[in-house]
Amino acid sequence: MSDGASDRITPVILCGGAGTRLWPLSRLDRLKPMVDLTGKGSLLQLTARRTADAAQFEPPLLVAGTGEAEAIEGQLQEIGVAPGCVILEPFARGTAAAIALAALSIAPQALMLVMPSDHLIGDEAAFGAAIAAAKPLAEGGWLVTFGIAADRPETGYGYIKRGEAIGGGAYRVARFTEKPDAATASAWLAAGGHDWNAGIFLFRADAYLDALTTYQPRVAEAVQAASFAATREGGRAIPDAEAFAASPAQSIDRGVMEKSDRVAVVPVAMGWSDVGSWEAVHALGPLDGDGNAVSGDVVAVDSRNCLVRSDGPVVVALGVEDLVIVATERAVLVVPRGQTQRVKEAIDALEARRGSESDSPPCKGGD
């Protein structure tokens, strides 16, 4: 790319994370972004489609692990999206380093829209309006994050407290806060001025790299060295592993956003979900007259308020309530609704069993 920045925004899609809370559908050989939860395409495909307008956006950059290139390229090919580049991290070093790899591959003045690959957005028009509102600030050197309008006292998300208004529906960020307890979340919801932190950002590449150099110089130095010595294989870029290994593991939130005094938040209600549990998948619907969300070869008889999904055998739910039942070709999960966050216990139990049955190491996140 030339030194001059395009008026178009460069989407940066982060493809990390195993999504083990959606086991057995999501696992090490089929990560959460590659899963279709809505019948409209995988989470990765839906994310890529959000920025497919060539009048507004450059081809997307994707940052992923080395083993994910073929799956990512295959899914994008299915929807007719040609990536600008797939950047393959030799190791996971957190979002601060992953975003820096993308920032170093585009023009310094270019705007980059950073998005996780495994979230859902129901109101894409609202998202587009929020991007338009954030763009002048980002062009002026602000690091902009998008705050999700809180509609319940959620304890599973981080929060952003709004500070002074700085125009265009944006606010200076007063404080980032990690996951609160229920009483605190309820108080913030009642008081207003607190938004969920979705991990979606808009900023100039150079503004981000300058902030990273200031607050996380070891990350910046390692990533710059790894990018300088990167190899190219077609549309893939592979940073130098030895140089990248020197980067500390750090998130953009704690490493940069919580430290900089040039951080703004644009609040937006856009039907966002991180789809972080089977409970969240049930909430997506659609629901039948008995409150069941069913998908695949499923029959629900005299059953209420269940999520029943099959990607393999026929599943019959008969006379049950408030259950999550998920069947794949390799495993079946049955868990009460309200306890779906305990799925990791099942994974740990399976790993322990495998470890006792074999000298080979267990497959984390597997089924």
Q: Could you walk me through the main structural features you see in this protein, from its secondary elements to its overall organization?
A:
The protein has helices at residues 43-50, 69-78, 95-103, 124-139, 182-191, 205-215, 217-228, 241-244, 252-257, 278-284, 343-357; strands at residues 10-14, 61-65, 85-89, 111-116, 120-121, 143-149, 159-167, 170-177, 194-204, 231-233, 236-238, 263-268, 272-273, 293-301, 307-318, 323-327, 332-336. Helix 3 packs across helix 6 (205-215) and helix 6 (205-215) packs across helix 7 (217-228). It has 367 residues and is α/β, with parallel strands linked by helices. The chain contains eleven helices and 17 strands. Strand 1 (10-14), helix 1 and strand 2 (61-65) form a beta-alpha-beta unit. The protein has a five-stranded mixed barrel. The chain has a four-stranded mixed β-sheet with strand order 14-15-16-17. The model is unreliable at 358-367 (pLDDT under 50). The protein folds into two domains: 10-273, Spore Coat Polysaccharide Biosynthesis Protein SpsA, Chain A (Alpha-Beta Complex), CATH 3.90.550; 281-357, no CATH class. The radius of gyration is 21 Å and the shape is globular.
